[in-house]
Automatic annotation (TrEMBL), chains A, B:
Gene Ontology process terms (BP): ketone body biosynthetic process; L-leucine catabolic process
Protein name: Hydroxymethylglutaryl-CoA lyase
Organism: Paractinoplanes rishiriensis
Lineage summary: Bacteria, Bacillati, Actinomycetota, Actinomycetes, Micromonosporales
CDD domains, alphabetized: DRE_TIM_HMGL
UniProt domain Pyruvate carboxyltransferase: residue ranges: 3-273
Family matches, as Gene3D superfamilies: Aldolase class I
Length: 300, 300
């Protein structure tokens, strides 16, 4: 069985850190990620540098990316971001639509309907330009401001996104780390009807220690439709506009779980292990990933 | 659906901490645990105080336990420990048999076969004295010294334990936190044949971020035979004789996962949340449980 892992530490990881990592250090991180065998890497976010100063060097990072073998992803929220993504020549764009109006306003200044309309314009232009597109439904498992998000709401948002412009991939995000496997199963069923035949991607945070169980559940649900899982080296990251949204699931811990469960990912965990301490040094705090501390088992 | 949670912070939690918590603080912790609705609490370990100084006050702790409503568990490794458990009038004894000879020697100075023979003597006497008994197969998911532990080895150890003396409960322990859900399912099938009809208990550590996925898998397997899950407030604990075996799964994080998944435990999470910071203060370091930092969801 194969599961695809999408590395998001350079983007979702670093954008939530107080420390601003400079461009050469970002590129060194990215080089190690690619060397480990990660083949899709969300490397930059084309958002307003005043809002997310950690991503202000997006163009410089994009210019330094090694072009071979990896599909490079840039996050965009509007057409201005798409213009930058096109100029930077990334391979894919990831467009975020937030499932709740309150969080959508805080995150990108518009309500959900306006976010979907933006996705429609971005998706059409990106496709025309030959970029792969992902639409991510954020806060699909719960909202830090509105609380529980009904499955019916996610169903509507997802259906409206797909109707607005068919993406190459749909992602469902537990932006604030509140979900459990039963929700993963329910949302997978929703995606199977509302985004039929479109590959599914999942984005989990481990804020309440449910992220790895959710990820394995999503992997176990992979059938005819491929499944991709987002993760972040060291487990760094979160969302600057969602309180207490710390901690993507850590790539190395996810890989341990997947490999021990019989999944093939094509990624070499040992190459990634030194990143935990390197990131701890760069960011000035211990990272939440645990495998680098505990070690592989059985020991290599 | 109901799952029973067995609280182990006063025993497995505190015995792995460098700081020695004094008896009144232990009893204050235990009082909060009982107030939250936990009905089985592993409160003490009747082991040699020279080997585990954190448990040297076992008799004093046992003497201070409120007798109503809770079934108090003491861990014992030999008949001397059983004598102390009987004198201290605990309700249950938990007897550890380590699945590998190397780890068994390090943990309790005898090989696995001698551990099973000790269980036979302890089990028979405990039952005669009217105590409930659990036999725990430790390192059932992997050994820090011998590496992978074959399912066949666990099958044999489990069968030999049950043949030696029928316990009221069988526990399977991932002592060093290396297991994944596929192993939980395989070992549950082993227990269903080798310990047929005997209630099953699971002991997970989150050392490599697989503990909560394992626990939910075990809960999902509960059918005709009841399932109990060990956890430790704040996620404190480990094993002093197993390298890098830090981190039981945290009771409050486990409860969040179980409750959001539709399980009833009878335990009030909010009552437990203040324990994380109290334990951090007592132990001099932040505890690994995350729910107390992130907060319940939806917010209460």
């Amino acid at each position: 069985m194969t599961v695809s892992v999408v590395e998001v530490s350079p983007r979702d990881g670093l954008q939530n850190e107080a420390a601003i990592v400079d461009t050469p250090d970002k590129l060194a991180l990215i080089t190690t990620l690619a060397a480990a065998g990660l083949r899709r890497i969300e490397a930059v976010s084309f958002v307003h540098p005043g809002r997310v100063p950690q991503m202000a060097d997006a163009e410089a990072v994009a210019a330094g990316l090694p072009r071979a073998r990896v599909s490079w992803i840039g996050l965009v929220l509007n057409e201005r971001g798409l213009d930058r993504a096109l100029a930077a020549a990334v391979d894919e764009v990831n467009v975020v639509v937030v499932a709740t109006d309150t969080f959508s306003h805080r995150n990108q200044g518009v309500d959900t309907a306006a976010g979907i309309a933006a996705w429609a314009r971005i998706g059409a232009r990106a496709r025309e330009a030959g970029l792969r597109t992902t639409v991510t439904v954020a806060a699909a498992f719960g909202c830090p401001f509105e609380g529980a998000v009904s499955p019916e709401r996610v169903r509507t948002v997802l259906a409206d996104c797909v109707a607005a412009a068919a993406p190459d991939e749909v992602a469902l995000a537990d932006t604030i780390g509140v979900g459990v496997p039963a929700q993963v199963r329910a949302l997978a069923a929703t995606a199977a009807t509302e985004a039929r035949g479109i590959p599914l991607r999942w984005h989990f945070h481990n804020t309440r220690n449910t992220g790895y169980a959710n990820a394995l559940t999503a992997a176990d649900l992979a059938g005819a439709t491929p499944v991709a899982l987002d993760s972040s080296a060291g487990g760094i990251g979160g969302c600057p506009f969602a309180p207490a949204a710390t901690g993507n699931i850590a790539t190395e811990d996810l890989l341990y779980l997947l490999h021990q469960s019989g999944y093939d990912t094509g990624v070499d965990v040992e190459t990634l292990l030194p990143l935990a301490s390197r990131l701890s040094t760069l960011l000035g705090h211990e990272v939440p990933g645990q495998l680098a501390r505990a070690g592989l088992f059985p020991p290599a």
